[in-house]
Amino acid sequence: GAGVSQSPSNKVTEKGKDVELRCDPISGHTALYWYRQSLGQGLEFLIYFQGNSAPDKSGLPSDRFSAERTGGSVSTLTIQRTQQEDSAVYLCASSLVLLAGSTDTQYFGPGTRLTVL
Amino acid sequence: QKEVEQNSGPLSVPEGAIASLNCTYSDRGSQSFFWYRQYSGKSPELIMFIYSNGDKEDGRFTAQLNKASQYVSLLIRDSQPSDSATYLCAVGYSNYQLIWGAGTKLIIKP
Asked: Potential cystine with A89: which of A3, A63, A111, B42 (Cβ 3.0-4.6 Å)?
């Protein structure tokens, strides 16, 4: 079946503009994650959704960042008043129902490369 | 603080040899362990996961887990140039979160 999809694949914006990044998880996956990866760096956790709720938003870097998920499926990450330090690849991942006491495999989308000029 | 440590490399291995990638973690309660491969400019893709102590083999890949030593490793046999990538170790923490290592860059030399 289809994997995780993300759009756009690339986004170039000017400092101060708002951007929206979209993630479409694998069908049936209830858990959805957003990560950020700067050039040459590791994965930085941003937010986790279980269904439509976000029990862990601890990784959002500032109040300029927000995310929502609707219908237990598509998620949108919004960055307001973008800054140059927001430039990175934004990755979305999804996973199946989580077993108690274990963490399920996360499957990644291709990412959105955001460049803030 | 939960941590996952990996040698950043690069680790250079001749083609056809065994590549050994290592990872240590801090949370003794962790129960799930993952190895992902990330090619330059691409997103991480799962190689394999392991939950129990011991070895798990999948083709040319073997994951090894030692919970007492808080150590997980990935062996790649008969290394190929196409195995050149960054390998990410991820450790399950709580029932949803993965703690990620920074990755080891592997270079297979023809």
From this structure: A111
